[in-house]
Amino acid sequence: MPATAPDVFLTPKALLDHWQGHRRLTRRTIEAFPDEQFNSFAIGGMRPFGTMAVELLRMAAPTVNGVLTGDWAEGASADPKPKADVLRLWDESTKQMNDLWPKIPVARFHEKLNAFGQYEDVAYRLIMYVIDNEVHHRAQGYVYLRALGIEPPHFWERD
Amino acid sequence: MPATAPDVFLTPKALLDHWQGHRRLTRRTIEAFPDEQFNSFAIGGMRPFGTMAVELLRMAAPTVNGVLTGDWAEGASADPKPKADVLRLWDESTKQMNDLWPKIPVARFHEKLNAFGQYEDVAYRLIMYVIDNEVHHRAQGYVYLRALGIEPPHFWERD
């Protein structure tokens, strides 16, 4: 039997790999936006993709840090930022997440936590929500790119 | 230590609960479309949401069945369908998935499989891809709804 046999669908390591694969794709989606549309273009009264990307920055690494330390500071400000600044913060988050994740005790993922002082749930569900929220808003970025006549990155490429 | 202590981020049961929560939200997104726009409205040369919904039907229950049995038939035809038919097939898939999932041996999720004769990967990654693809296309449906002046269902509600 492999080491993961008991009742494992996903190990913590597999989840981080999965998440960082999504984050690489989201990074390419941010890169695909023209600078001048990043914080302005929108459809149907929704937010520009730049605003969504900042929300993702304020959720990903801060959630990993919160699950590990109990400190739920959101890191980056919510203000709109030029694309280059978002990409720089994105890369800093990637490194921070890779550093912090292995330090989280496995049992912690099954404890009920209060994220950012307002979302109470079991840690693994809080983390899945953060990833789902990224996939959700990135897909909206795909529609914005298509509406701008730009081909988005391939959904299935996560390297 | 809880039963899930060893190296578990997600158990198979937790993953199915997570997936069905997403599928309930996607069902509400399908319901929110006016019949006359379901198979016609699109942005930027993308597919109508009805076509995407049929793709999701052809991936979800068929993947669960494929992982369990090795039979990778796609079930429903790829033809566009009225919204009521998609919802009926959706509910049939929900029941089928709930019936088949607990029969999958846990070790199977960590075996390399060839899904639909063309996607070779470890089973848990194939399954995560199917869920991600649903979240991705549903979010595009959200943009279509907003562009039509319709408020989509709340993203965080999964009951």
Keywords:
2 strands; homodimer; globular; 159 residues; 5% strand; mainly alpha
Spans of chain A of at least 5 consecutive residues whose pLDDT stays below 50 are none
Helix proportion of chain A:
40-55%
Oligomeric state of the chains in view: homodimer
CA-based shape of chain A: globular
Kindly report the spatial arrangement of strands forming the biggest sheet of chain A. Answer: 1-2
Give the count of helical stretches of chain A: 6
User: What is the number of strand segments of chain A?
Assistant: 2
**Any idea what the radius of gyration of chain A is?**
16 Å
Structural class assignment of chain A? mainly alpha
The fraction of residues in strands of chain A falls at 5-15%
Chain pair sharing the greatest interface:
A-B, 46 and 46 residues
For the termini of chain A, the CA-CA separation is: 29 Å
Strand-and-helix sequence of chain A, N→C?
HHHHHEEH
Rounded mean pLDDT score of chain A: 95
Largest sheet of chain A: 2 strands, antiparallel
